[in-house]
Amino acid sequence: MNSSNKSSQDALDDCNVESLSWEPFMALAFLVPSIFSNLSAGVIRLYRNSVPFAKLNIIFIINYYIVEMFNFLISLGALGAIWATIICKLPMFLGTMVFKSMEWAVFTMMGLNIVQAALRMLIVLKFDQMMELEPEKTAKQLFLATQIIYIPITIINTVVDLKREFIPGYLGYLTGAQPSFGHPITLYLIAANIILALLATVFAYTFNTLYLNNKHALIIRHEIGTPQQNLISLKKLILGALVMTLLIIGLILIKFLIPPCNRQQSLPWAILFNILASVQLMLAKNVNAWNHCKQVLRIERDNLEFSSFNPRQIFGKRNRVSAIA
Questions:
Q1: Which of 253, 147, 239 is nearest to 197 (CA)?
Q2: Do residues 228 and 293 share a domain?
Q3: Disulfide-capable partner of 111 in 90, 146, 194, 248 (CB 3.0 to 4.6 Å)?
C-alpha cells in the first residue's frame, strides 16, 4: 500500500516538473476570465446605481446579487489559481477557505435563482401586493434567508471533508496535494441545487407565459417585461443553469477520464473558468446597462477634452498668445 502511494506521488512530482516550464503562461488563461467577469459586473453595478428608486423592483436587485456572486466566484477562483500557478501553492488551510468560499458562492447563486423564479410567479399572481414591498429591504431579507440555509450546509460539508481527509481536484491544484479518489458530497449537493434551480426557472417561465396568455394581463406583462426592470431574463437564467449542469457533469467525468497527474495541471481548470466567464458575460449582457456605460464613458471623454489639463488646449492657448505678440 505504501509503495503504491509512493509511486503515485513520484509520478505526480514528475508531472509537475515537466509542466513547470509552461505553467506560468497558463496564468493568462485564468487572468482573462477574471478581467472580463469584473468588467461585466462593473457595467451592471454602474447601471444598477443609476436606476431611480421608482424603477427598482425585487427581481432586479436579486438578479444583481446573482451577477455579483458569479463575479465573486470567478474572481476568487482565478486569483487563487494564478497565485498557485506562478507564485507558490497555497497552504492547506488557506486553500480550503478559498475552495469552500467558492462552494458557498455557487450555493448562494442557485438559491437566489430559485428565489427569483418564485418572485416572478408571485408578481404575476399578486401584482399589487408585490409592488407594495420595499425592494431593497425585501431583497436583503431574502438574501439573508438563503444564507440561513446555505452557510450551515457549507460548514457541515467542510467538517465532513476534513474528517474524511478528502481533497477535491481543485483544492489539490491550489495546494499541490494529490486529489482524493471519488467525489465530494458537495458536488452532489451543488448538482441537486442546480437542477432544482433549473426546474424552478423553467416552471416559472412556463407558468407566467401560460397564465398571462390566458388572462390577457397586458398591464402586468408590460411591467414585468420591461428590460430595465428585468436585469436578467428567464431564458438567460435557464440557459445558464443548463451550462452549469453540463459543467457539473464535466467535473464528474474529470475524475474518470483525467488521471490525478493531469488534474494537477492548470489547463482543465482554466477551461472551466473561461466557460464560467462566458456564462457571466451572457447573464450580464443587458442592452440598457451597456448603453448607460457607453454614455458614461462618452461624458467622461468629453469632460477630459474640455479639461484645463488637456495638452491640446494648453498648447492652443500658447500658440494664440505668441501669435498676438
A1: 239
A2: no
A3: 146
CB atoms within 10 A of CB 86: 16
Name the phi and psi angles at 179, rounded to 5. -65, 145
CA separation for the pair 104, 98 (Å, rounded): 10
Distance separating alpha carbons of residues 275 and 268, to the nearest angstrom: 11
Do 156 and 301 have their domain in common?
no
Please, are residues 117 and 208 in contact by the beta-carbon 8 Å criterion?
Answer: no
How many beta carbons lie within 10 A of that of residue 5, not counting itself?
Answer: 10
Cα angle value 68/71/77 (rounded, 5°):
140
d(CA 312, CA 299) in angstroms, rounded, equals: 18
pLDDT in tens, 116-136: 889 888 888 887 788 788 888
Give the pLDDT band of residue 23 (cuts 50, 70, 90).
Answer: low
Domain match, 215 and 312 both: no
Give the domain range for residue 309. 288-325
Pair 197, 209 in one domain: yes
What's the rounded Cα separation, in Å, for the pair 27 and 22?
Answer: 10
- If phi > 0 it is left, if psi is from -120 to 50 it is alpha, else beta; for residue 56 that is beta
* pTM, to two decimals: 0.77
Cα–Cα separations (whole angstroms), residue 293 to 62, 69, 70, 276: 21, 21, 20, 23
User: Is the dihedral angle over the CA atoms 246, 250, 251, 255 positive or is it negative?
Assistant: positive
Grid cell digits, residue 46: 454602474
Closest by CA position to 82, among listed 72, 90, 94:
90
Q: How far apart are CA 110 and CA 195, in angstroms?
A: 9
Q: How far apart are CA 322 and CA 166, in angstroms?
A: 77
pLDDT band at 1 (very low <50, low <70, confident <90, very high): very low
Lookup result for grid cell 458537495: 186
